[in-house]
Write a structure and sequence with these properties.
single chain; alpha+beta; 10 helices; 28 strands; elongated
């Protein structure tokens, strides 16, 4: 009997162990299944996210690197770096809300847009060639509306470019500090030059001057060695391109992308697009200028130049010449097309420059011509310029053509100080002595004859 009792106890213990073992396996399996089925939801507030978009290498579809930070206070910062087709950076700040389904609605408040000369410059942290901040009513159509980002539980999906954004420990830039840092770079490299002009001899529109806008430049180069009195010793040319500035060495590098032929003759006649002989382009692919005391000085070049000074370094609105004006009047394509060979007799005597050596002489003659008539006694000149072109009509309603001028002026018949009541008019004289005038600029036979009579006396 005892043995039977012990056997029953052993069987009972074994049964309990078996049941316990089965219970343990069952709980373990359930726990494992719960772990596999439970997905860790993404946390948005107070976290950074990153993602990339691979474009097709065009300016319309470049590569993008996205970085975002969603603050706990309902504000966000988004930093988008563009390359391989467009070297730029867009840093945005604004507010956001999270919907019940976890999706995010973003509203942009301010955008800083930067452009760079190349992907290399962008990645190495050099100064942008342009930087602009947009906010309020200056936001563009792509920015001035709500932007939705979908919450896919383990990542965020941008509705623009369908970029997947994953949580990261790498912090997104601080909007304000980033803007201040990039503006400091820009101001050190381009800010002191953009929209400024540098001239030689202290003249408003001399034969030798350079103008800047953003990272672009145009240089109307003119030079004559004062010790060289030989015939046709003056030279003129035009250079265009981009530039960079190293503030540590005060050195500006001009990257010449386009340049005219070189033209030789009398310097003043050259300013009126008239030359005696032409030659090959003067400049290499790069030119170096030293910037000291608001003055640019060419160095290390095969040709010589006068120094060029900015007479209004602290006021770009007053600085002359203006880049846009020079591009419209002296761009390489315009300059080359307008240059014409003068005759030997013109270079030796009888030219417009000999009758009116300066634009002021031309202005004085016109003023005398008009003010002696009571109907035009209020004639006065508001602006005057050496060289350049005017859009001329052959006849009323006809097509305009660009004609080179020795001098150009802008004048009014209204009482001085009340020019706003008058339609501004132009007068220009060509190297052959033809004078064009009016609001719709046409050949003025009376003025042309008056000049011919004056020049022959």
């Amino acid at each position: 009997m005892k043995r039977k009792k012990y056997l029953l106890i052993a069987i009972s213990v074994l049964a309990l162990l078996t049941v316990a073992g089965c219970g343990s396996n069952s709980q373990s399996t359930a726990s494992s299944n719960n772990t596999e089925n439970t997905v860790k939801k993404i946390i948005i507030k107070g976290h950074n996210f990153k993602g990339t978009h691979k474009g097709d290498g065009s300016s319309k579809d470049p590569d993008y690197k996205y970085s975002m930070y969603f603050g706990k206070d309902g504000n966000f910062v988004q930093d988008i770096i563009s390359s391989n087709g467009f070297a730029g950076r867009f840093t945005e700040r604004g507010t956001y809300t999270i919907a019940k389904n976890g999706d995010i609605i973003m509203n942009i408040v301010s955008v800083t847009e930067e452009r760079f000369a190349s992907d290399s410059d962008l990645s190495s942290g050099v100064a942008p060639i342009s930087i602009v901040q947009r906010e309020g009513n200056t936001l563009n159509a792509a920015e001035d509306h709500a932007i939705k980002i979908k919450n896919k539980t383990t990542y965020l999906l941008g509705t623009v470019n369908n970029v997947k954004l994953y949580q990261t420990d790498k912090k997104t830039v601080n909007y304000r500090k980033h803007y201040e840092s990039e503006m400091s770079k820009y101001n050190s490299s381009y800010g002191k030059f953009s929209n400024h002009g540098f001239t030689s001899n202290g003249m408003d529109t001399p034969m030798n001057a350079i103008a800047f806008k953003g990272s672009n430049f145009i240089w109307r180069y003119g030079y004559q060695d004062e010790n060289d009195t030989s015939k046709n010793s003056a030279v003129m040319a035009v250079f265009e391109g981009t530039y960079s500035y190293d503030s540590s060495t005060q050195t500006m590098t001009l990257n010449v992308s386009s340049q005219s032929n070189s033209y030789y003759g009398n310097l003043m006649n050259l300013g009126g697009f008239e030359y005696q002989k032409s030659g090959k382009p003067l400049a290499a692919k790069t030119l170096k200028l030293k910037y000291v005391n608001n003055t640019l000085t060419l160095f290390g070049s095969s040709f010589t130049s006068w120094k060029m000074e900015d007479n209004h370094p602290n006021d770009a609105s007053q600085s002359q010449p203006k880049y846009d004006n020079y591009i419209n009047s002296y761009a390489v394509s315009i300059f080359d097309s307008q240059m014409h060979k003068g005759s030997d007799s013109d270079s030796n005597g009888g030219s417009v420059k000999e009758v009116f050596p300066t634009k002021e002489d031309f202005v004085d003659w016109l003023t005398d011509y008009y003010q002696k008539d009571d109907d035009t006694s209020n004639f006065h000149v508001m602006e005057s310029d050496d060289g350049g072109t005017l859009p001329v009509l052959e006849n009323f309603g006809g097509e305009k053509k660009t004609v080179a001028m020795v001098y150009r002026i802008y004048y009014s018949f209204a009482e001085e100080g009340n020019e706003i009541s008058d339609t501004g008019k132009n007068i220009g004289i060509t190297s052959s002595g033809e004078i064009y005038s009016g609001h719709d600029i046409m050949l003025d036979d009376d003025l042309t004859q008056a000049y011919a009579d004056y020049a022959s006396n």
